[in-house]
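Methods, example record. To illustrate the input and output format used throughout this study, we show the complete record for DUF2800 domain-containing protein. The sequence lines were provided to the predictor; the line carrying structure tokens was produced by it.
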Amino acid sequence: MSKHALLSASSSHRWLNCPPSARLCEQYEDKGSDYAAEGTEAHTLGEYKLKTLLGIKAKDPTSALTRFSEEMDECANGYSAYILELVETAKQTCADPVVLIEQHLDFSKYVEEGFGTGDCVIIADGTLHIVDYKHGQGVLVEAADNPQMKLYALGALELFDGIYDINEVSMTIYQPRRDNISTHTVFKESLYQWAEDVLKPTAEIAYAGKGNYNCGEWCQFCKAKYECRKRAERNMELAKMDFKRPPLLEDDEIESILGKIDDLVSWASDIKDYALQAALGGKLWQGWKVVEGKSNRKYVNEDAVAKAVTTAGYDPYYTSVMGITAMEKTLGKAKFAELLGGLVEKPQGKPTLVPEGDKRPAINTAKNDFMEVKDNG
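The corresponding predicted structure is encoded as:
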């Protein structure tokens, strides 16, 4: 069995929306990333902390973690405490809930060779709980209509639905670095219907390498995103417009551009990165060359610099208070709040235009302020 399934749960958002991307991505090496490596270590630590809390013997992996930090430790403690709270709550209605950690889940009944690993599965009276830990802080992950969570749920149901009387499935994303605990609960029948009506037929198309290419936010983690012609065509649509100065564009033109511009900027950046890496590997782009970029001076040996400056009668050091993010990472969130909670303020952020579905509340605009004054008058 390969380490990664072709149609994995973690990549399901992409291949369900763009079926042929599954086979296309097979051509690319999985290079991994520092973020992925950090996430793996955070999962390892969280697994150990959880087993310890549940009284399961486990070896402490901390000394072997190359990316360990107080923040990671705090996240793992929070995750394990959250799971324990779920278990204790389940015990109020179920004498002996089943708790499974890093459980292999097989959903190949619906997806060819489909399998994944559930961080934590809890079975109690009538309810199956699936919890997935996300260490990343770049993208906020929601549990509602999350295909990865639904695939894990189907894998868990395949194991336990015939043994336990399960009525509903509760799926939770635990994402501590975004202060995000997102839970979505559905009846198991709706999962089975989605599996038959949507998942199974789409997976068959994806496994065969067929279907239509489709672009969207799922392109972000696609290995083929740099060379994908469909993505290029979609983003080049903006360039085909007869651009006028923004005030001269019609409202619907502005709205259309706003919906595409983030993808356009991301795509343009990806193309530049890809072209640079290819050029460094020997590729010649007609009309382009690789040059040395701007760099800053740096000391060869800081200890020698400090010694020379001190000998000359000067102080080579300056001190400043650590930044808030670095301080919180050093102290951990709890200690940071205890020591510095009253010494930190958060100024109002710079106004930003976002899609209407964004969860942040709208701020008052000049027009809104005028309308409020008029109404109060």
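Annotations derived from this record:
The chain has a mean pLDDT of 86.
The longest helix spans residues 251-280.
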